[in-house]
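FORM 7B: Structural annotation worksheet

SECTION A. Query
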Amino acid sequence: METTSRVEGQPATRRTATAEGYLRAEFPWYGLDQAFTGARWLMQVGTAADGTVQHGSMGHGDEPSIKSDVSAAEKERFAVVVTVAASPVRRTGDGTGVLDATTVSSAAWLAGSGLLAYTWPAQLDHALRDDWLDQQTETAFELADDLAGPEWSTLSLPVDGVPMPFHYRESEFGWVLAGSAGEVHIGAYGRGMSAYGLGFSAVEDLGLYA
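SECTION B. Predicted structure
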């Protein structure tokens, strides 16, 4: 998952196109609740082959980046919230295929792989990064598929003001959590911000993230 840049001079059409992707979703988006007062930004949505929006991410705090300066990267404070439409196994809109069911593991996998996108070891040779990412991505997939395993603990966080259970794990790269809330699954990942103090709420105004 790559973040959408918000550097000065970025064409407005790109920001608009990003927002339009979120507006096409048939499910509510979730972000950090009003207790978070820092910067917010839109990332990217994921779609099925027929164009149906299936998931997307919203960023909070410092935009994460890959930095060769380890000390600079460690100072970043961010949390990214991933929203995944909860759905059973179903046919694609054009009837030509089948879409897998989405579960809490889906949210955990997207959050885990999202965190990996910004945690390149600074000392790792560029030629070895693909091998490193393949290895870490496979590990993240296996962990997401075993939420009852020893790598995960549980914590309760508010979703729209109601305490909800989440699966949670920490690593040298940051933290990842995942849970469900009605018609969506919620995943999150971050670094430099404690997951224990977070709360989630449905996003009523995408303009807060523009």
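SECTION C. Observations
DSSP finds four helices and eleven strands in the chain. The mean pLDDT is 81.

SECTION D. Sign-off
Analyst initials: ____
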